[in-house]
Amino acid sequence: MAARLTSFSKLLITLLILTGIFFGGRYVLQNTSAGKEMMKKAEEIKQQENAAQDTAADTPARDKNDNVLRVQLVTWGGYAPGLFFNEGALANTASQFYKDYGFQVEFRLENNLDNALGAWMTDNYDILVQTADAFPLYTSPAEINNFKPKAFMQVDWSRGGDAIIAKRGIKTINDLKGKKIAVAVPSPAQTLLISSLEAAGLKYEDVTVVTTPDNLKAAELFRSKDIDAAVVWSPDDILATRDVPGSSILVTTKEQSHIIADIMFAKESFILANKEKIQNFYEGWMKGVAAMKDPNNRRKAAKYLAELNDLSTDDALGMMDNVYFTSHEDNVNFFGLNDNYRGQKGQDLYEKMSREFVKIGNAETQAPAWRSVIYTGAISGAASNLIGATYAAEGAKKFESKPTDTSAPAIASKPIRINFETAQFKLNENAKTIIDLQFADIAKTFANTKVRIEGNTDNVGQRNNNVALSKKRAQSVADYLISEYNMDPKRIIIVGNGPDKPVQGCESNASEDCKAKNRRTEFQLIQD
Length: 528
Hints:
This protein has helices at 8-17, 37-58, 80-85, 96-101, 113-121, 136-139, 142-145, 188-199, 215-222, 236-243, 268-273, 275-291, 295-309, 313-321, 328-334, 346-359, 377-382, 429-445, 463-485, 512-518; strands spanning 68-73, 104-109, 128-131, 149-158, 162-166, 180-184, 208-212, 229-233, 248-252, 261-267, 323-325, 412-416, 450-456, 492-498, 521-526. It is an alpha/beta fold. α13 (295-309) crosses α14 (313-321).
């Protein structure tokens, strides 16, 4: 599959370095006058003038009275439904958007996101694409937020398009501790890495991040001797690991299935002035998603995707296989309009990464609250026309228990200390809160993996009693996840180790501190 968002890092680094500087066209990254304010100002003015000229040259000026909705896309398989419904990328009267709703849509391929942002600011794009986790970097800078960007549609979930690859000897995410990892910064690659590390009880600072301009460069660096792992796009996960003997694909968004969500957004002013058009665009796109269930429609969509990206149809189909197209009901869930939905929501991703970007230095302040940067009117307004099984939400994965589940290798292991009363196995409220804070989000993010819960004890008392007790404690945790988060019981594997798997360094249970460390519950993610 061709690379996606190849200029993502360039945009965001620009936003951070030139904080508060707004250009009518594109941002330019030049740090040649540090400490010399007058020279800096002069350079900024010069760049503004050049930017305006560049944007005018790169993006055709639009007729304000035309009836064409202009939408930026990047090289990514998730946009196939919209291209299908539009009968290709160009504005045309054969489009279902035109036939059903009376307006035309023009999809433009623009992988340079700083160019796209500049054109959007000057009204040469109506709609831009982004990921929910990276959206805080668009809503937190004041000069961009003055345009009040509003996300109004989820397009897809990445399902294999993003991956972490690692060299020989690194078999689990836990093994990444202390390793050098090539990562595009700041970008969704960070989100994938951060959430993966959390599943292993690790933090971002527990690894050494080698920054790259994009995921393509990360794959290149992985082939060098100095890098232990990298966050890459497909097909570089396959190609790079083939090139490096002994390396492997550690985890992808097939397992971490609810972490990278593509969205579309527009200015609040544009939405308010074009509510019906935005609603109809959303509705038409959802009809395109429903049409993808037919293999013939899917191949037709791949043809349009291939034409836009100058690829073969088979390559375009491969791109589409790495995403899950989100339906109308998926959008209802994602935007928090279903009170009964307990899975991953846009708010979860957006607000988590808003905090993380500040913590790791990619943003100065947290972004505005999710509710203030979304528009749900299109979803609600189209609901009456999007009824039936073809618009239903993705169901939870069906798991089957296997005899090998208790011993299968883990993708990641996270020890969590849950305190039980002596000889007791029922969860108290404090234990439930610990599970909520330290594991529930991981279970939602890795929705396509099984969860093995291992109960452990110290060596006080008879071994057989401790084994039975540890199993009951693990089962109590499983029962809570099933009742509170609607997890499939077949997704959960229960193991009671008793005192047989003490933590390293505490094998003899010689101190009270070691005994406490050994009285733990361990959560492990394993492939189905």
